[in-house]
């Protein structure tokens, strides 16, 4: 049974992920504000090392694993920033990571994921097929499945925002409809994103 997520846990996660992330300040968008007739601010998480907020959830998740669990390694499926977030976080902890990506994934994303030390397996034409294969590999090899990390990433962003009193007055953020909803552009979504669904949810609105 999964552990209950509490405010204290989110605060703990927020402190831990500061080891690998940079605080991103809100940026006022004149264009979007004019388009919507309101004040729109953006939080530029694309400035993180791996290009998105997905690193936050991945890094914290690995921090909670026991040495025995880390020894098993990680496996996930993604066609975008989730892959890079898991790969980089695994590298920082010295954990083996296997990322299953659709064969249609842009070569740049594949190469960046490999550059962080992950083993990349190209499988299936769409995300769902890659995801199914990742589950199959997990059952066969018993690594830790690192798929559902978006909620924690978004909550960490919210804590970072509310730590700034001025930002807190401006922000309403979008979150996935359920803890298991992921986002990865071509991942039609059950993992993570670039211009992906999850990254669109990075935009903060007012």
Number of strands: 8
| Alpha-beta classification | alpha/beta
Low-confidence stretches: 172-206
- Radius of gyration equals 17 Å
Which bin fits the share of residues in helices?
A: 40-55%
In the sheet with the most strands, the strands line up as 5-4-3-6
Q: In whole angstroms, how far apart are the ends?
A: 37 Å
Shape: globular
Helix count, DSSP H or I runs of 4 or more residues: 10
| Beta-strand fraction estimate | 5-15%
Tell me the layout of helices and strands.
Blueprint: H1 7-17, E1 27-28, H2 30-36, E2 41-42, H3 54-63, H4 67-72, E3 74-77, H5 81-93, E4 97-101, H6 107-115, E5 119-122, H7 127-141, E6 144-145, H8 150-162, H9 165-168, E7 172-173, H10 197-200, E8 204-205
Parallel strand pairs: 3-4, 3-6, 4-5
Antiparallel strand pairs: 1-2, 7-8
Helix pairs in contact: 1-3, 1-8, 3-5, 3-8, 5-6
List key phrases describing it.
45% helix; alpha/beta; 206 residues; single chain; 8 strands; 4-stranded parallel sheet; two-stranded antiparallel ribbon; globular
Describe the structure.
The chain is α/β, with parallel strands linked by helices. It has helices at 7-17, 30-36, 54-63, 67-72, 81-93, 107-115, 127-141, 150-162, 165-168, 197-200, and strands spanning 27-28, 41-42, 74-77, 97-101, 119-122, 144-145, 172-173, 204-205. The longest helix has 15 residues, at 127-141. The model is unreliable at 172-206 (pLDDT under 50).
